[in-house]
Amino acid sequence: MLCGKHLAKLLRSSGSRQLSTDALEKFRKINYEKIGIVGVPFEKGQRKKGVGLGPKAIREAGLLDSIQEISNKLDIRDYGDIQYEALNLQGRLATNMKQLEHVASCTKLLSQRVTRVLNEDRLCLTLGGDHAIAIGSIDGHLKHCSDVGVIWVDAHADLNTNSTSPSGNIHGMPVALLAKELADYWPYIPGMDWQEPIISIKNMVYIGLRSVDPYERVIIEKFGIHAFGMREVERYGIKDVMKMALERIDPDGKKSLHVSYDIDSLDVLEAPSTGTGVRGGLTLREGIYIMEEAYNTGRLAAVDLVEVNPSVGTPEDVKKTLDAAIHLLVAACGHSRIGDIADTIDLIKK
Fold first, then answer.
1. Whole-angstrom Cα distance, residue 115 to residue 138?
2. pLDDT score at 89
3. 220: which DSSP letter?
4. pTM of the model
5. Tell me: the pLDDT tens digits for 193-209?
6. Which of 139, 158, 270, 292 is catalytic?
7. For residue 325, which of 259, 245, 266, 247 has the smallest C-alpha distance?
8. What is the DSSP string of 287-335?
9. How confident is the model at residue 94 (pLDDT cuts 50, 70, 90)?
10. Distant-in-sequence, close-in-space partners of 269: CB < 8 Å, separation ≥ 6
11. What cofactor(s) does the depicted protein rely on (predicted)?
12. Are 133 and 141 in contact (CB under 8 A)?
């Protein structure tokens, strides 16, 4: 059940809209008073060292305290980091999928951990690590609840297969691995038997795209994938983009929502410490708004925050990037930029 302050925030955020009893019942499906944090210090999905330090750096920058400041009533549990042993694939490798044994091993355990957190009635925050970890986090969400809508916030589409990827880095493949419409585009992948592509590409939407490979563009067009690049953000504004994104993937307002957020969706001036930064991205204000609106649906169940690399840039760059990451994560947990509602009004005299 939602506490009074969170219900008040949802009512306030609805503006002039009247929330029906059915709508309020939907809001109660996600217990925003309980939050679970999972760290994934994983960097084998790409080449640059340091992104595996992301979870530790985000925690040390004050994530838990920043979330707790929203309300003393929040029950926050840190489930620690995913630790794994790489599978021995005995030479059975898929062509052009680098470090597959590591990706398969780590994401399988992450899937199990995310399912556990959600089964314990908590909003699940997954800290990466590179974006390959979304294979596990979204799979874990789907194992908890099959009716999931995914908001993929990223400069890149991450939609390559092993036959189209120019690099073979698996952090550029997770959407293609997850989407059931693309299952026939893949060979048998050793070590990935636990993962079945069951989410429809129609239940996924991109926000922030501005660096898309030619093959990825073909797939986006062929399957009519919902995609709002930076041109659309500039044309419509982030408010309408977010509204349209939710309407496209969840027109009935019933899906459990998963936001998979690559820090490189932000402009490099906002978040310079990342491995694949691209100029012309989202402002931090726009990035926070995406998280706020996802939270205000009452159906946000899981969030990934990935590709923070504390080894990239100056100490000032790292601090700026970590600050941005925490701003995004506390927004996903219900922090309001106009001030959080007090847990008690006992100090307010009549």
1. 9
2. 85
3. H
4. 0.90
5. 999 999 999 999 999 99
6. 158
7. 266
8. HHHHHHHHHHTT-EEEEEEE---TTSS-HHHHHHHHHHHHHHHHHHTT-
9. confident
10. none
11. Mn(2+)
12. no
Which candidate in 102, 141, 144, 171 is catalytic? 171
- The pLDDT tens digits for 215-234 are 999 999 999 999 999 999 99
- Which of 33, 81, 101, 262 is catalytic? The answer is 262
Q: Using alpha carbons only, give the angle 167, 172, 175 rounded to the nearest 5 degrees.
A: 145
Examine the residue annotation and report whether 307 is marked as an active-site residue of this protein.
Answer: yes
How far apart CA 140 and CA 301 sit, in angstroms, is 11
Q: What is the phi-psi region of residue 344: left when phi exceeds 0, alpha when psi lies from -120 to 50, beta otherwise?
A: beta
> Are 53 and 322 within 8 A, CB to CB?
no
**270 to each of 103, 234, 278, how far by Cα in Å?**
29, 17, 11
Out of 6, 102, 144, 156, which one is annotated catalytic? 156
* Number of residues in the chain: 350
State the catalytic residue, choosing from 43, 101, 130, 154: 154
- Peptide bond just before 280 cis, omega within 30 deg: no
On the question of pLDDT at 286 being above 70, the answer is: yes
Q: What is the largest CA-CA distance in the chain?
A: 74
The active-site residue out of 6, 43, 130, 131 is 131
**For residues 170 and 168, what is the distance between their CA atoms, to the nearest angstrom?**
6
Q: Where are the alpha helices (DSSP H) in the chain?
A: 4-13, 21-27, 54-60, 63-68, 100-119, 134-144, 174-178, 214-223, 230-249, 284-296, 315-332
Q: Which of 85, 84, 82, 86 is nearest to 56 (CA)?
A: 82
Concerning whether 154 is annotated as a catalytic residue, the answer is yes
Compute φ and ψ for 126, nearest 5 degrees.
Answer: -110, 125
Given 264, 286, 292, 304, the catalytic residue: 264
Q: Is 279 helix (H, G, I), strand (E, B) or coil?
A: coil
Which backbone phi and psi does 235 adopt, to 5 degrees? Answer: -75, -45
Rounding to the nearest 10 degrees, give the CA dihedral for residues 40, 267, 234, 155: -40
Least Cα distance to 176 among 164, 193, 188, 159 occurs for 159
